[in-house]
Amino acid sequence: MQAGVGERVVTARQNVIIAGAGPVGLTAALLLLRRGIPFTLLEAETELADDLRASTFHPPTLDMLAELEVADALIAQGLVSPTWQIRMHPSGERAVFDLAVIADATAHPYRLQCKQSNLCRLLLDRVRAEGGDVRMGLRVEGVTQDDDGVAVTARDAVGELHDFAGSWLIAADGARSAIRGLLDLPFEGKTYPETTILATTRFPFDRHLEGLSNVNYVWKEQGTFSLLHLPDLWRCSLYPDGDETIEDALQPESIARKLQEIAPNPGGHVVEEIRPYRIHMRIVDQYRHGRVLLAGDAAHVNSPSGGMGMNGGIHDAVELVATLGEVFDGAPVEHLDRYTRRRRPIAEQEILTQADRNRARMQERDPAKRRAMLTDLQRIAEDPVASRAHLLRTSMIDGLGKAAAIQ
């Protein structure tokens, strides 16, 4: 394959090209470095994003990051959360799940509440310190491939085109994946009808709501909200009330009213950021398309309820690089199909389906059904055997075990 033509800036063939400097792409990059496999990572933006994205790290993800020697630094920047809960508001009735019951299955029996961007910075610093090739401000615009490799064309901020040639391309470029679009891959699924409004505030909800955890999914009369605690702020997921339009729900007075319903305060609640977003549940049929390998949101997206999206993407990266390493060590190319066999069913059955159930539970409006759900959840939380089984599943440990058993 030709590396480049004309006046384009041309990079010699690298073994792997990675698109996307999010947690998935950067995890893959550091893993490749540790295996001695050269790569070039292309990121469309000139700087790492610092906006409101994922913020929950599950126990097995922290175990994986510990093997990469970045977990301790991440934990130091986050909030260790040994429990999470589902509760009624304003009564405060709740089912509290304590991750101590799975301490025999993980070195990190807790959730860590920390911004995704913190991990990305730690990973990027480590990748650069160890000599990794990271190119910021290069947006992928073209992909071609043959039996021997893949060619990628990317455009920089001033419009110049750059050509890269490699043996494999890892598409870790997110839910709006340019590579998935260039390959014209179906992304089947659905978009949920509701719009979530994410609002951040430094108001100390834990001083006003008795028994609050750092992760809380809450039913209120004819509605729902969630409160997620980070070291320096609370992330509040809110929704339009009744027939309220999204435009009206985004107004400061509507946000203020909803926060007063959660925790009345004469001085109000200073809101720092508001962001509406829609939620999707979608997945590609195959994670490998010739020499192109999809991972993370490029391959699957799900409801954030349960905090499994980013974690699942990191798990994809770990499995993908392990399998790719075996191919570099001499396994046949077809061995990479095991990556799809292991990760896609887990994404579909353990991540998308579980997140869909979590979302449906919190969107339930029937008081009797809510009461029955809470009673059942309390029963599970109070039974050590049932609680352990529940937490192994919701912490994604079960899914990883199932994946590892697939040949």
CATH fold group of the domain at 9-80 and 114-188 and 281-363: FAD/NAD(P)-binding domain
Number of strands: 19
Distance between the termini: 33 Å
Radius of gyration: 22 Å
Parts with pLDDT < 50 across at least 5 consecutive residues: 1-10
Helix and strand layout, with pairings?
Elements: E1 9-19, H1 23-35, E2 39-43, E3 56-57, H2 59-67, H3 71-77, E4 79-81, E5 83-88, E6 94-98, E7 111-113, H4 116-129, E8 133-136, E9 139-145, E10 150-155, E11 161-171, H5 178-182, E12 188-201, E13 215-220, E14 223-230, E15 233-238, H6 246-249, H7 252-262, E16 271-283, E17 288-289, E18 292-294, E19 300-301, H8 309-328, H9 337-363, H10 367-382, H11 384-394, H12 397-404
Parallel strand pairs: 1-2, 1-11, 2-8, 5-13, 11-18
Antiparallel strand pairs: 3-7, 4-7, 5-6, 9-10, 10-11, 12-15, 12-16, 13-14, 14-15, 16-19, 17-18
